[in-house]
Amino acid sequence: MGLLLLRFLYRKMWNTRWLTISTLIGLIVAVAFTTSIPMYSDGALKRVVSSSLKENSEGFPAGSLLMRYQATGSDKADLGAFADVKRFIEEDVPARVGFPFATYVQAVSIRGAQLAVVDPSTVDPSKRRQMTLTAMSDFGEHAELVNGALPSADIKNGVIEAVVLEEGAFRNSFRVGDEFYYPAFGGNEQLRVKVVGAYVPKDDTSPYWYQGLEGLVNTLIVDESLMMNELLQNRGLPINLATWYYAFDLREIQTSDLSPLSSSLSRLDIELYQHLQGTQVDLSFRDMLQDFRSQSLQLQLLLFTLAAPMIAMVFYYISMNAKQALDRQRSDIAVLRSRGAGTKQIIWMYLLEGFILGGIALVVGPLLGWFMAKSIGSASGFLTFVDRQSIPVGFGTDAMLYGLAAVLIAVISTVIPAIQSARSSIVGLKQQMARANKPPAWQRYFLDVALIGVVGYGWYMFKERQMISMQTGLTSDQLQVQPTLFFVPALAIFSIGLLCLRLFPLLLKLFNWLGRSYLPVPLYLTLTQLSRSSKSYYPLMLLLILTLGLGVYNSAAARTIDLNSTERTLYQYGTDVIVQTAWEGFVESSGPPPGSQNPGGQPGGQPGGQPGGQPGGQPGGQPGGQPGGGAPPPQQVFYIEPPFQVFEELPGVEHAARVLQTKGNVVISGKSIGTGTIMGIDNDKFAEVAWWRNDLYPAHPYLYLDLMGDFEQALIIPQNIADKYQLKPGDLASISISGQLIEFVIVGTLPYWPSQYPDVTPFFIANLDYIYDQVPIIPYEVWLKMEPDARVTPIVEELQAKGIGLASVKDVRNELIVQQKHPARGGVFGILSLGFLVSVIISLIGYILYWFFNLSSRVVQFGVLRAMGLSRRGLTGMLFLEQAFTAGLSIALGLTIGRVASLLFLPFLQTTESAASQVPPFRVVFEAGDTYQLYGVVLVMVALGAGLLLTHIRRLRVHQAVKLGEER
């Protein structure tokens, strides 16, 4: 029976091989998508671990585990218990951690004591030497002798040999051959210790020296076996301190390792104490693991939320294929039922088919998922993959479990319809065929309306959160916003698509009724066919709406995230490279003559703590007597300006500009309105170096720069200050810079200016030369506009070669590269890019297969129409119109709904980026190139559909089509 079932299953799969292959493709894509996310998450985790391993935390490498036994008071550790805890640490701890360790060191010490000189004639007895006798495991492998020899494992003539750190020998006046008495706590005699050598570490950066070399300055190192056997066991000296240190290599850690490893480290304290009281964990990487676990879970949650709509779309595609195959086999199932086949046998046959296809998908899918994870790791933007060092992607347990879950879900979604069909007899089948026009369940129970209500509530909640974040300044993390901004829009596309499908047959019937008397035959037949069997077109139409709608939304979301993030960084810097040179200056003291000011010239503030709101800002300055008349006379600071022409001649520099940024007290109509940032510029050069987004300004920014060139006293102020104080162009304003009140004329008001944030600190843009005419020169920054791919290193080397010192160099391009390499950013763009490509492929395959089987199942209908006199051209026109009304309408709806969903939901992305008001303002971006790609896919689909249609009609033979029997 089993062999016959397999043979029948093989024949069934072969007869519907194209549907079987398409279902297999869908399964492979689903498995690949679901496995790629944990693979990428593991790879990103390994990259984070690798970067953490390069950093030190409190002097210890990441992956450090330090355990300590410390004796308290006169307690004496039991040597049996000590040996037990030593065995546990050396054998059980590495096994429980499960990762290799690069370093292991045990250090055992007895209580420290002050040394007494044996022979005062050779050693200075007045020197105080507080030392500790210690033994370290594998000491000879990590230490290099600079003088003398390593200590012996035996006591020679009652003398214990020891070595000391070279720095310790210098500080404590040790020489090789010196002997000392060491009063041993808990012993009946003094130990006689002889310094036989001085050492230095072979590699002072090795984790072996975890305690730091400073901690070894007052330590005498003896042989380990001598310490354990002679001093501790034979002489009974008590252990004062014992430490065990591991440096584990966590570079191959996976997400599945985090939870059990964290649990093992959490319990380590308890088990150490049970073996030997007083033993505990001093330093652990448990907190680091918890951080890794939190980052990994957040990354997986984000990526799965992004991928969920695409994965659901793939499952829908699989179920649609299964439904098509099942519709073609319903007669066969009914015949099998009439011939005695049981329901369980039929269900088992479909279940076995699902397991066979799922098994193949589990083998092939993770391989494709590995490639997709690599692609996600190399994503630098939407549909932009760069050739850079890839993340270490591997096959883990989590990935295979996710793949297995995807297969089970897909198999269940295909078997459930088979269960319903397996219970139908021939009579039941005929009844179902007679009721084919019965509305689907989602129409009968108004599921589409309910989902639109859910989407509306989601939009309302996003709106409320955005308002709260703008009003309170809370970040998205504080508001606990989940990454549902990609799930709710997908639900919106789905629900609106369902609502449009509800209206679709009504509109067809309306058109048919209005034009039934004068419509051409092909159009009339098309409307009649669609209105009578619209239910059969729903799967294809919904698939196209989903795929194209999600494609539009995902592309717009990726472009919006990328562009707004990049523009925020560009606006923050204002230009490509900002160079702050180290200015030389000298101080000249002077008495306080009447009306003197407080010139200073430090960028960003006035010397002497000039108050920001001096009353009225007296033009003549404040009287010479400052509060507390005994104050020293003010000091005038004069700076020497570096040659600016050097910057214009630097390699790779297109343009350079001087930019002064300092603080000043602003006075309007004799009243101080507070402090602001004064930016002094050269208008013509600043126009060449600054980053501009023209839609931020009422007019082109060059027009405002032209006004500054026309009037040397010109001043540009922020729009919010102008609105608050009712200022207009032509009004006067005074600003105190370095204690000198300078008068300006307002020539324009702007909401934004490169690198300035008016809601934080108001900006005031003025001519730099006019400011320097009024006050002593103040150090300024140099803004550089770089050539494409030009590097900063040659600039730094050139300036240093010319004797110009640098205080700081900021490169916006480096910041953008750092952002692009962030795992979450790369994951978002990678998932959205792959989702876009998958939606394109799924829509293309689904469209072709649907029309292929739709046309194949209507051969009899076409033959009857041809036999009744419908010309081949009329039949072709009818099918073209049918495609236009179904696929064409679905394509238009998908593109439109995707764009509407983008406009509705993408503005809420700014709450996930920054809860405060964003500068420059957030904007939704639709890239023309992405739209053209979708149009290209649509054209390919239409062309393939038309070619398939024409080929099918060309092969149609009336005498073969018109026959007894049923359509298949």
Short structural summary:
With 968 residues, the protein is α+β, with helices and mostly antiparallel strands. 53% of the residues lie in helices and 17% in strands. Helix 8 (286-338) runs antiparallel to helix 17 and helix 17 runs parallel beside helix 27 (872-905).
Distance between the termini: 28 Å
| Secondary-structure content class | alpha+beta
Low-confidence stretches: 471-481, 590-631, 912-916, 964-968
* Major β-sheet profile: 12 strands, mixed
The overall pLDDT, averaged over residues, is 79
- Into which percent range does the helicity of residues fall? 40-55%
The counted number of beta strands is 27
| Count of discrete alpha- or pi-helical segments spanning 4 or more residues | 30
Percent of residues in beta strands? 15-25%
Please tell me how large the radius of gyration is: 40 Å
Globally, the shape reads flat
Supply the key terms:
17% strand, 968 residues, disordered C terminus, alpha+beta, 27 strands, 12-stranded mixed β-sheet, 30 helices
Describe the overall structure.
The structure is a single chain. With 968 residues, this protein is α+β, with helices and mostly antiparallel strands. It contains 30 helices and 27 strands. The strands form 5 sheets. Strands 3, 4, 5, 6, 7, 8, 9, 10, 11, 12, 13 and 14 form a 12-stranded mixed sheet that branches. α17 packs parallel to α27 (872-905). It is flat. The two termini are 28 Å apart. Residues 471-481, 590-631, 912-916 and 964-968 have low confidence and may be disordered.
